[in-house]
Amino acid sequence: MIRYSRTLMVGAVMALAAAPALAHSTVKNTVPASGSILAASPAEITINFNEAARVTSIILIEPGKPERKLDFMPSGSSTSFMVHDPKLATGRNEIKWKALSKDGHPIEGSIIIVIKPGATPSSPPPAKDHDHH
Prior knowledge:
8 strands; 43% strand; globular
């Protein structure tokens, strides 16, 4: 019985040690941060991951307009992806991204940026984790 308990304990410890290897990539931060209110469209949007990922699409959703695909760089695996000159419109802009985690699992999330001409730029406090699985 003791030997059986010891075997179970060793197995549980090994399973817990392997758990971090199964974790999906997550977004560390975005620039500008999700929830930012800006006076004008930013020159660039950057999405930073905690480990290498491969972004497969970035789409802009604006109220009353059709979805618009945004070009991003790089096209391969990286920890940082950039959208140059996204041309965000006045009002609420949702930037939805999809990616493949380092372990091959699909992940996705969104960034909300409000463009309010004449506004004093504001950024919310950094979120611990704002991506969605």
